[in-house]
Here is the input.
Amino acid sequence: MKIYLINPAPSKLSSDQKETLFYASAPPLGLMYLAAALRGTGHKVSILDQAALNYKNSEVIQWVINGDPDVVGFSIVCASFENAKLISKALKTSNPNLKIVFGNYLATFYAKDILKKYNWVDICVRGEGETTFKEVIDAIELNKDLHSVNGITFQINGTIKENENRKLIKGLDLLPFPNRELCPDIYKNRIGGINVTKRKFTTMVSSRGCPFSCTFCGCTAFSQGNWRTRSPDNIVQEICELADQGYQEILFVDDNFTLNQKRIIELCAKIRKEKLDIAFICDSRVNNSSLNLLRTMKKANFEILMLGIESSSQRILNYYNKKITPQMSSVAVKNARKAGFATLVGSFMIGGLDETYEEAINTLKFISKLDIDFPHIIFTRALPGTQIFKDLIKNNMINEEQYWETGVDLIDLPEAKMKREVIFKIIKEQFHINFFRPKYLIKAFLRTLKNGYRREMILSHLNYHDVDTFFKLINNPPDLF
Here is the structure.
């Protein structure tokens, strides 16, 4: 059979609006894993990443029609759901015999709602898809009953059926490496339309799930609170294969990369042994950022560290069930600098339901005090499947039917103590000030002199276009909040 897999573009990126400041063009890793699981089965698989190729919906539709596949699968999250609906409906209208399959977060949390409201969708794959999707394809090819496939919700003769959940994949080492051959080599580590470096870039995952239960994150529900890892040997094997393919920059997209420090220390030792010219990027919880761990990571060529800091208010952190303190964040940043990290990104959320202007402004002041390079600030959003979203429904603050497809920024709810336009103006002003503080500029200059990776970043952008783009973003950042 011929199978097409589509990563729909977020709605903003498929229109004339430019990408947001911290939008990163990253390979559709989930679809690549599905393609790898189908390798050797005799099926012909193709992947189209709409956002990366900058395709209009009409171009995606024509690509599918020209290829005439038997099955089209969509990886859907809230940001891309609108385009997934439009494209899939057009395809079903063009070919009623085409099987439409939705997967990823939204298909996991709202499978029945999707099939009920958008009856041209045939199947929703819930949870991890490697085994489930392969069984779906086998059943379709052999015209077998779908009732035996765990982990799916499907329509049959107008009736919606929901099978049992599929157990999580425990032996991650058994999974084949993602099939990156099906996507063009166009991905770069990007910030606001600017490629961070000219290195060949990709992403990989060394573990799945997270045992924490932050109320704004859907990872806990998706992975049922389970954290599973690949072995260091298996991870390094993939890294070495990527090195042989010319990759020089890898972003780990784990839900919780540094949860087990012993695992990371062992991984770093194996990476160092290979002596590879690869720069690594990852994130870390601030309470899993010891000086020893970060020094070990830095010696293994980890160059960019992203820390989930969120807020300077302990009350707000408790509301997020983050299980950290502002002091932990300060220590983590100091540890990272002592370890030699020259590039730090801190993520922050502003706009909790009862967060006050004073608390928000204190967080902005906290950002200025922290020794980080890039503050990634977003408005707190209640996404389907998260505890915040469930609590809003339980407390009758939102209509689930209105928001299950998109989620909602808490600051836009009537109960919010702050107004979007007011705090947004304050954030933009602070964002501008933060980048032009003399102390910040001097430290950035000195770190660039000392760190080869930062010098590479700067030398990649010594042209009018990139410098002009950067200053426009700093002076008037887009609606990244």
Summary: The radius of gyration is 23 Å.
